[in-house]
Design a protein that fits this description.
The chain is α+β, with helices and mostly antiparallel strands. Helix content is about 35%, strand content about 25%. This is Inositol-1-monophosphatase.
């Protein structure tokens, strides 16, 4: 399988979906918003963009299964499985805030082998395939060289489930507020991971996630020279609902997380 060839086809596909998202945001009627769960919004735009992705991905790799956020197609894991979030940052999108993305990952036998994160408004497409490195709009990217917690810029998100974990999580955030260069909340986990991969962020963390939130982004970080774990330092980030991704400051950042997560 030529992963580079497939990856570049996916990049082209996300450009088409990007154009759809931009057009719809200009005309979007907020009365069409649905509520899936507490603070979990969805619109026809999420569903329509997912259908566009699914149709294109079927043409690229007909034998693959799908795991998708909006379940517009039967969910089935196969030897190759697409894991997609058609609109990561739905709340930003619906409030006409500029940061949201398209996230497409390809998994084989439990391993992510291809990832594309397309940040829509800046038209920044981050992509990687296993063993091929990570790229932004055709240029190779790497995590930054900072190794110090005090010089690190960290991104995070705030979830409205697993409330029993809230105190431990805010202990981590409180530590980062006091000891780092700053903490940011961008509103798209996929973009957080992409920004770690290209060196804009030193690390990002979040819990109560789904595989489609992170599948593409974790490969970007790894192929850019970074590290990805769960909050305890293990590898259960894809199914374990928590992720910590860092550049060269991994040692100090991960220690701060592990010491406070229980």
């Amino acid at each position: 399988m030529n992963l580079e060839h497939i990856c570049l086809k996916v990049v082209d596909l996300t450009k088409d979906v990007m154009n759809f998202l931009k057009k719809e945001q200009e005309e979007f009627d907020r009365s069409n918003i649905e509520l899936k769960g507490k603070n979990d919004l969805v619109s026809y735009v999420d569903k329509q963009s997912e259908m566009l992705l699914v149709r294109g991905l079927k043409e690229i790799l007909p034998e693959a299964g799908f795991i998708t956020e909006e379940a517009t197609i039967s969910q089935e894991e196969k030897k190759y499985t697409w894991i997609i979030d058609p609109l990561d940052g739905t709340t930003n999108y619906l409030h006409k805030m500029p940061l949201f993305s398209i996230s497409v990952g390809l998994m084989s036998e439990g391993r992510i082998i291809l990832g594309v994160v397309h940040e829509v408004n800046l038209d920044e497409c981050f992509y990687a395939w296993e063993g091929g490195g990570a790229f932004l709009n055709g240029n190779r990217i790497f995590v930054n060289d900072n190794t110090a917690l005090k010089a690190s810029l960290i991104a995070t998100g705030f979830r409205y489930k697993q409330l029993d974990k809230t105190e431990a999580y805010f202990n981590i955030i409180n530590e980062f507020v006091k000891t780092t260069n700053g903490v940011r909340r961008l509103g798209s986990t996929a973009v957080d991971l992409a920004y770690v991969a290209c060196g804009r962020l030193d690390g990002c963390l979040e819990y109560n996630l789904n595989s489609w939130d992170i599948a593409a982004g974790v490969l970007l970080v790894k192929e850019a020279g970074g590290a990805v774990t769960d909050f305890t330092g293990g590898n259960d980030f894809l199914s374990g609902k928590e992720v910590l991704a860092c550049g060269k400051a991994f040692e100090e950042i991960s220690t701060a997380v592990k010491d406070r997560w229980n």
